[in-house]
Design goal:
This protein is of the alpha/beta class and 483 residues long. Helix content is 49%, strand content 11%. The protein is built from 20 helices and 9 strands. Strands 3-2-4-5-1-6-7-8-9 form a 9-stranded mixed beta sheet, with helices on both faces. Helix 16 links the parallel strand 4 and strand 5. Helix 1 runs parallel beside helix 3 and helix 11 packs across helix 12. It is globular.
Length: 483
């Protein structure tokens, strides 16, 4: 039985040695020491894992690995000349960063095949003991039980149920000693944050749906820049349609109130005031942790790889494998290429699987994701979950779902033109209070400057109340009247 690939194992180790944490966190969720069929490779991976868990460095040298081997009592690597030569060869082995995870996927599949092979061998022995008096359900159950046992082998973590309140007192003590203003990361839209339960929470996918050309990208831009600029929290904007310069133009327009068209054409330079304002602002925001990556046409697996690398390189991952504070903005969820729809799979099923992967990623690294989706034509007139284009699974797996749309002429007349031309309607919110039925949050989109300004809700305008206190609004420094 082969079920091994020595060059692939070598490429994984070489990639980690060459690219450090960028490669390690790209494969750590797939392989472990047991994934390698060559004993030397298994020991080397154990050493590299220890190095990364101690200090997620970029460059790894031979002394670092040998020191780690001593700490793990792997004397074979330190004292054996052939082992050191093998390790030196791995460190010189050429491999591209983009190929490291592909090799890890291959090695992991082979490992699963080996595990399944061993599992089925034991199942064959159990079937050999069948005498024919057993009910069919029992005979079939032998295979079912074998598969169930096998799936548990794929997860080394402790999946035992826990008593819900066993550790509650300790958690209450921790919360009382370290009070916070709100649970999640604020987006710069305080009423939206309040409605969904206190901002973007760790381990959640927060979904906003809109029809084409309503302003999804501007919403993403405004939230992303606010989070990065005001709270110094890293934000990754994954964009399926626009390129970097588009975000630069819209972002600087939003921050300076200089028209996007003036920036795109360079006309701002002819006005000394605009020119100075843009230059100063550009210098001030140069180093804010706001990142962009165009993912148009990239397979979803590659997109997940981009997110993993960003977490490892720019955000940081702790010893438990959880990321530091950050936000991923995904604009927007859709099928990139026909190869993602396999066999008889429908497009809505493929979208459902993409959402499942995004949800699992958020849970695994405990990060908040702000995702945008396209509304179907029902979204023109209806404001309910069935306007989500693609799949019910998008609604099932999101923490909250809101609709962002243009206001009707009647709504603009009722609220007053000064109260905005867009509305945000939180439909479901697992952690928040949401808003009342038929209410909505007023938003003014000033397209000329790429700016969104959140206003009061429709009901607040009617009865003169506030759904959140002035103290809560104050923390955002963003309760600005429409302009």
């Amino acid at each position: 039985m082969m079920l091994s690939d020595a060059p692939a194992e070598r490429a994984i180790l070489a990639g980690i040695c060459r690219y450090g944490s960028q490669a390690y966190y790209d494969v750590a969720d797939l392989v472990d020491s047991n994934s390698f069929t060559i004993e030397s490779n298994s020991m080397i991976y154990a050493c590299l894992k220890r190095v990364m868990n101690k200090d997620a460095i970029t460059n790894i040298d031979l002394p670092t690995i040998l020191s780690s081997a001593k700490e793990l009592n792997l004397d074979e690597i330190v004292s054996n000349k052939e082992e050191i030569q093998h390790l030196s060869g791995i460190m010189k082995f050429p491999v591209l960063l983009d190929n490291v995870r592909k090799m890890a996927v291959k090695v992991r599949k082979l490992q699963i095949a080996r595990m399944m092979y061993d599992q089925l061998e034991s199942t064959k022995d159990r079937y050999a003991q069948v005498i024919g008096d057993e009910p069919i359900s029992q005979i079939l159950g032998i295979a079912e039980e074998s598969i169930f046992e096998f799936t548990s082998l794929l997860n080394d973590s402790d999946d035992s149920p826990q008593k819900v309140f066993a550790e509650l007192e300790n958690r209450l003590d921790e919360l009382s000693k370290n009070p916070i203003d709100q649970v999640g990361i604020p987006t710069g839209f305080p009423r939206y944050d309040f409605a969904i339960g206190g901002g973007l929470r760790r381990g959640t996918v927060n979904v906003i749906g809109a029809r084409p050309k309503v302003g999804k990208t501007l919403f993403a831009e405004n939230a992303g820049i606010y989070i990065a600029r005001e709270h110094n929290i890293p934000v990754l904007n994954l964009d399926t349609e626009m390129v970097l310069k588009d975000h630069q133009d819209r972002g600087i327009a939003m921050l300076t109130d200089v028209a996007i068209s003036d920036i795109e054409t360079g006309k701002f330079a002819s006005n000394s005031y605009k020119n100075q304002k843009i230059r100063e602002t550009a210098k001030n925001v140069k180093d804010i942790p706001y990142y962009h990556k165009s993912i148009g046409g990239k397979p979803f697996e590659d997109q997940l790889s981009i997110m993993r690398r960003w977490l490892a390189k720019e955000v940081g991952i702790n010893a438990e494998g959880k990321a530091n504070d950050c936000v991923v903005i995904y604009d927007y969820l859709k099928i990139m290429e026909s190869s993602e729809i396999k066999g008889d799979m429908k497009e809505y099923q493929a979208l459902g699987f993409l959402m499942t992967s995004l949800h699992n990623f958020a849970i695994k690294y405990e990060i908040p994701i702000l995702a945008f989706i396209q509304l179907n034509r029902d979204g023109i007139t209806k404001e309910s979950t069935d306007t989500a284009s693609g799949s019910d699974r998008i609604i099932w797996l999101c923490s909250n779902f809101s609709i962002y749309k243009s206001k009707s002429d009647e709504e603009i007349a009722k609220d007053g033109p000064e109260n905005g031309n867009r509305k945000l309607v939180p439909i479901i919110a697992r952690h928040g209070e949401g808003i009342q039925d038929k209410d909505y949050i007023n938003v003014n989109m000033i397209g000329k400057y790429g700016k969104l300004i959140e206003g009061q809700t429709a009901f607040e305008l009617e009865d003169g109340t506030n759904i959140i206190s002035n103290d809560n609004l104050g923390q955002y420094n963003d309760d600005i009247p429409f302009s």
